[in-house]
Predict the 3D structure of the following.
Amino acid sequence: MSRRLLLLALTSAACFSDDPPQLTATVTGDDTSTSTGTVTTDGTPTTTGTGDETTSTSTTGTTEPSLPTTTTGDTDTTGDTDTTGEPVVDPCKNETPTCPAGPSGEPGSGLEPLDRCNFPLTRAPEWDNLGPLADALADALPTWTIADVLADLNNLALPAASVPGDVEALELAFRWDDEDFDKYWWIPQGLTGSADAYDDGRLAGREVVLVSWWFDKELAQFPLDKGVRVSLVDVTDAPEFSLRHILLVEPVPGDPVDFKPVPIRAGGIAWYGDTLYLADPTQGLRVFDLSRLLEVNPAVDKVGYDPKVADYYGGLYSYVAVQVGAYKHASGCAPRFSTLALDRSASPPELVVGEYCDGLSACDSDIAGRVFTWPIDPVTGRLPSVITWASSAAYTGESQIQGVTRSDGALYLASSAPPGDPGALHVVPAAGPGVTHGWIDTPKAVMLDGDRIWSMSEKSGARFVFAAARAAYE
């Protein structure tokens, strides 16, 4: 009997609850980074890192971004070709850029472009180390596509007629069930969906959103750090919202091959095809395979293989998504990967990364937050090169950016400034000052979906996901 059938016999507690009783606490601040690095004149990246006080020190594989030792078919070019069919070498390969001292403009003055050559991402050894382990896990366990899991949702979100804050032209909204609405130790962060993942904006004909959460082990007073989960939510039949939580895991060598949680204070997520990108604040981007989700035993609150019973567990979840690769930053300008989105208006599509800065816990200035974009191969969904330099970089001119996306050169920045609960949405064109709108309180990520803007809030007791008419903000 497959575990899918076995799920029918599980109690509601095993399906819907995964944590100890609620604690009274608050969550403040955002991630910071003190990683540093350089790119040599031949394009070879090197980095050093001193850690992140808000992020677990556990990382995947080798923390040094270095070139792979095996042949992968990638090249250290932009991924383009000239008219002769030869690879085009990125001019940044031969540049030695200098990091700027900080923004020169005033708050709200608009984008201040930066030298993109300061911000390379390199193909990390995880692609070689984790891939064979993921294959072994797929041989050992039942596998399902993300579309399969969409047909096996097991929980509900609740429709909401309004959201806290000052959101214009609200079109639809939901709040999490009572458990996730109030729980302090699972904290929602990122937002993506089928609008990012597929040309037609649909997964198996359905409109879905995907929300990431990070686990605060100290607030949970739980011996295990469960790391990061994502919630797959079907919004097609609003005001009915069905969902399922999926745990993200990293493969671990062993006999048999094992897996463990991803214990970081995760940033945003971006979904393209079968690929899910997760922002790792001090490292860069982790990559997960959504074409082979593993079905595991949801009956016991542990993660990984238990030799006593010869079975795998997913922290009370039935499915886990496995990390298969990573891209590490190799920049002396210490980019922080706070939030992440996808720009489908660009050709090829581009990943958009934004930095949180408040001038206190993160950055010397509250308007020192930068935004970066990197192209992805529209066929593979991966970065095109062993070294991929940013296609653009700029200071945003806005403070406390919690969410960012871009379309046709215009940025949409969700901000938690001024201090307190109120949020704002800054729409910043490619040139000229931005326009500020009211937004949801304690905002996080932003996603564009045709004529709608999606966003969400993170404060315990006030956690909503919503879509508003885009025309009201342009």
Summary: The domain at 107-473 is CATH 2.120.10 (Neuraminidase). Helices lie at 3-6, 12-16, 126-140, 146-150, 178-182, 194-197, 217-220. DSSP finds seven helices and 30 strands in the chain. The chain has one domain: 107-473.
